[in-house]
Design brief:
Elements: E1 2-6, E2 16-25, E3 31-34, E4 41-45, E5 51-54, E6 62-65, E7 68-71, E8 78-81, E9 86-93, H1 99-102, E10 113-115, H2 116-120, H3 122-133, H4 137-151, H5 160-167, H6 176-183, H7 187-197, H8 202-220, H9 228-234, H10 240-251, H11 255-261, E11 269-271
Antiparallel strand pairs: 1-2, 2-9, 3-8, 3-11, 4-7, 4-9, 5-6, 5-8, 7-10
Helix pairs in contact: 3-4
């Protein structure tokens, strides 16, 4: 598989975390679960095949996407098709970084995955055309930077308070009210700024950030059986029950089950879909439908 990634040059690096391109992806599974990770992303598909977003891990209902789509801030997992020979380019924005390119409040994308052409019309078509014209990975990435520079409406970037909170989002016990007071904002003012620029409110943004940090820790320290009671206060949760509640919300399963099935993995969790329901019991535990796997 060919893979290339880069952090864009200034001034785009104030808005975009990185641009990624890959082709020739050959997954051994049929679907993937994408858990919330605190970013708005634009995805460009270099193939003309439709790609499915499913309503559940094993159900058939869902929605098809082609060419390009945009994913807003999420507070629940998204289930997508894992296609053979996939070729995608992904623009991942920093917190508050998407709005200057979109021209509207980021809150309007919360919880959504939408065809990019429905959002930006001809500009979305132009982005894909430029990417397809690039003969090499480096040329494709450069074409994206050129498109972004042509789209940006305000080089000043998000209000400093957005970057300030984003920089401190992993601080244990960080409270929105205390931060607002420290920066001279009311809680309501801070919440409105975040809805406009980031999409999520500051409290939701911190929840997703805390979860992301916890999952990264689990992936890096997979040799140990997690001590959830000890991990809860370490990552800013009130107690183990609080951790479990948010974990179920973001992943759709208990922390223990996640650790058993996906040790060492932070995102794009593989889902093996049984081809013959009659033979489900013969499948390894990680490939069985959710209701057959012990909690």
């Amino acid at each position: 598989m060919l893979f290339a990634a880069q952090r864009p040059r200034p001034p785009l690096d104030l808005f975009v975390e990185h641009i990624t391109f890959f082709e020739g992806y050959m997954p051994a599974h049929q679907r993937e679960k994408i858990v919330p990770d605190g970013a708005i992303q634009i995805i460009v598909d270099l193939h003309d095949r439709s790609k499915q977003k499913y309503d559940s891990e094993y159900g058939e209902s869902g929605r098809s996407f082609t060419r390009s789509w945009i994913a807003g801030m999420q507070m629940a997992p998204v289930i997508i098709e894992a296609q053979q020979q996939a070729s995608l380019l992904i623009i991942r924005f920093r917190p508050g970084g998407a709005r200057p390119f979109l021209g509207f409040s980021s809150e309007g994308l919360n919880g959504l995955v939408e065809p990019f052409e429905d959002v930006l019309d001809r500009a979305a078509v132009e982005l894909r055309e430029r990417v397809l014209e690039g003969e090499t990975a480096a040329m494709k990435l450069a074409s994206v930077e050129a498109w972004l520079l042509g789209r940006i409406m305000d080089f000043s970037g998000p209000p400093p308070v957005i970057a300030h909170l984003a920089a401190r989002r992993y601080a244990p016990g960080l409270q929105v009210a205390e931060l607002a007071d420290e920066l001279g904002y009311s809680t309501r003012q801070l919440r409105n700024l975040f809805h406009t620029w980031v999409g999520l409110g500051p409290k939701q943004f911190l929840q997703v950030s805390r979860f992301k940090q916890l999952v990264a820790h689990l992936a890096a320290d997979r040799s140990k059986v997690p001590d959830w009671a000890a991990l809860a206060p370490e990552f800013g949760y009130a107690d183990q029950s609080h951790l479990t509640h948010e974990f179920r919300r973001f992943v759709g399963m208990s922390p223990g089950r996640y650790a058993a099935l996906y040790a060492g993995q932070e995102n794009f969790l593989p889902i093996h879909v049984p081809q013959d329901p009659v033979d489900d019991r013969r499948l390894p535990i990680f490939a069985r439908p959710a209701e057959q796997v012990p909690a």
